[in-house]
Amino acid sequence: MMNLVTMAKVVRTVDGEWKSTLAEEILERWGYDRGTVFYYRASSNFLFVFKKAGKRYFLRFSDSNEKAYSQIESEMNILEYLRDQPICVALPVRSNNGNLIECIEADIGTYYAVVFEALPGKQLEIEELEEDDFHAWGNHLGRLHKIFKEMPAEYRSGRKDVQDQLDDVFKNIPDYETAALKEFDAIKHWVGALGRSNENFGVIHYDFELDNLIWQDGEIGILDFDDCMNNWFVADIAYALRDILKTRDDMENPFVNAFIAGYQSETQIDQLLVKELPMFIRMHNLFTFVSLLRIIDVPESMDLSEGLINLKEKLKQYIEKYRNSFSS
């Protein structure tokens, strides 16, 4: 998620009908049906839904101070590779200039924008899933990882490595966060003992949760490769199943077993690393904790909307939850 100061600049352009002149200005590069551009959400990027010739699309853009052009470019390269693979993903759409990424110099900042096709189908909540659905969920992640394992090495070079992420995390943990620093030391020691191979380590999605999946007729479409990075493949499983994997005892949950069985129907899995799923969740929790500290780091004098004030308070609660988990 982006810093709240960055978020506030764009949110201020959204009116009471969820329309934004900034979003419409950006979409001039692609074209759109007038009156169809609406604010959808803001997290690590700004997202707007719109129609062009009656067809539904999504506009995604980010502040240049939050995200490097090269990071988005490497994501687009991976998606272009996946275009020809046996898997359904939300694909980028070229602008009228023939570009997958457009750079927009607006009055309030510089933004990098992309447009994606909207996938048909619906999103599901975890309470709606049966064992067969968990099997399908795992199957599609296994299929994606199988493709990533066979993907040429040059596609990996533009994505961050988990070690880089750990280095960034350490630099951004304040000295007074003693529990988080202790947790970092434990995670660093644990990571140092893990082996890497082409079968257990490579590009992963790293946000393979239900919010980024579209279900239709037994197939699952995948959204949002913004967080993809070089990490252990098991880390993708850990993040996907984090809501039902609270302790090592949960490894025997039939839903977890169904997910892993579905995964194994497409590609191999390192069984030793599967036993480390709870540790991979701890590592992601530490990443999230440090990210949240940065997000809410705004001047006290900053004039935030009521919605962003409420969001800040909610994020503070998450921070405290993670902080307490490090101490337990």
UniProtKB/TrEMBL annotation:
InterPro entries: Aminoglycoside_PTrfase (IPR002575), Kinase-like_dom_sf (IPR011009), Pseudomonas-type_ThrB (IPR050249). SUPFAM superfamilies: Protein kinase-like (PK-like). Residues 45-264 form the Aminoglycoside phosphotransferase domain. GO terms for molecular function: amino acid kinase activity. Keywords: Transferase. Signal peptide: none annotated. Belongs to the pseudomonas-type ThrB family. PANTHER family: AMINOGLYCOSIDE PHOSPHOTRANSFERASE DOMAIN-CONTAINING PROTEIN (PTHR21064:SF6), AMINOGLYCOSIDE PHOSPHOTRANSFERASE DOMAIN-CONTAINING PROTEIN-RELATED (PTHR21064). This is Phosphotransferase. It comes from Mesobacillus selenatarsenatis.
